[in-house]
Design brief:
Elements (H helix, E strand, L loop, with lengths): L3 E5 L2 E6 L2 E6 L12 H21 L7 E4 L2 E9 L4 E5 L5 E6 L4 H5 L6 E6 L6 E3 L3 H10 L3 E8 L9 E3 L5 E2 L24 E5 L4 E3 L6 H22 L1
Antiparallel strand pairs: 1-2, 2-3, 4-5, 5-10, 6-7, 7-8, 8-9, 8-10, 11-12, 11-13, 13-14
Protein name: Rubredoxin-like domain-containing protein
Organism: Arachis hypogaea
Keywords: Membrane, Transmembrane, Transmembrane helix
Length: about 240
């Protein structure tokens, strides 16, 4: 005798020879059972909105490192003066390109290469995304006492801070080695030539062997010497 399956109203009855087995599907109760589809959608939408609203308005979170694969997200509050330098990440985003040894940022655990995801805003206790360098700097400067940072560290951080511009402090973080840049390369921030860059020490946040003063200082010294010489000449006449 062939097996025949009959399904009706959530119950399954199977006849195999003279053996009869009844099995019923047991549903696990949920908070959405008994609601119509529109009601369930409204419930889910409300829960999502409330959860997002809490995340958007909360300021202080436990200072923890949440592991996500090979990278982790870190949240710290840093008192001013911060003792750090920010730079624009190629392709978008903001990176920490310099840390002052023994400064507040270093004591808080921030490191060169950390990608800044959020910072304190100057409107209440909100956190703002750090996607543009200029806007992020403005928001940080507007905070009078301390700044809250959410940074990402690990596989997603591809900063290679190897050189620093002696004129404006711009940190070179491109994946292309600095030595492979052509002689016509100039600082994207102040247009200083390639020879105005020095090797960068990520631990101290300072140039290595970069003893030349900024070009503005050199021009000022030359102008000053010229002015003194002119005064002497006219004085002798």
């Amino acid at each position: 005798m062939s097996a025949t399956a009959v399904v009706a109203a959530g119950s399954a009855t199977t006849f195999t020879g003279t053996t009869i087995k009844n099995s019923k599907t047991v549903l696990t109760p949920t908070s959405l059972q008994g609601l119509s589809l529109p009601e369930a959608k409204r419930s889910l939408s409300h829960s999502f909105f409330v959860d997002n609203n809490k995340k958007a308005t909360r300021r202080r979170l436990d200072i923890t490192a949440r592991t996500a694969g090979a990278s982790k997200q870190i949240e710290v509050e840093v008192d001013k003066p911060l003792g750090l330098t920010l730079g624009q990440k190629p392709g978008g985003g903001v990176l920490i390109t310099g840390i002052e040894g023994g400064g507040n940022a270093a004591r808080a655990g921030l490191k060169v290469g950390d990608q800044v995801l959020y910072t304190s805003s100057f409107f209440g206790d909100e956190l703002w995304p750090a996607d543009k360098l200029g806007f992020t700097k403005t928001a940080i400067q507007a905070k009078p006492d301390s700044v809250y940072f959410v940074v990402s560290r690990g596989a997603e951080v591809d900063a290679r801070a190897t050189h620093i511009c002696l004129d404006c402090g711009y940190i070179y973080t491109l994946q292309k080695p600095f030595e492979e840049q052509p002689d016509t390369y100039s600082c994207p921030q102040c247009q200083a030539p390639k020879k105005r860059f020095a090797k960068y020490d990520v631990n101290t946040g300072k140039a290595i062997g970069g003893n030349l003063p900024p070009i503005g200082v050199i021009i000022g010294l030359v102008a000053g010497v010229g002015a003194v010489g002119a005064l002497l000449v006219y004085g002798l006449q």
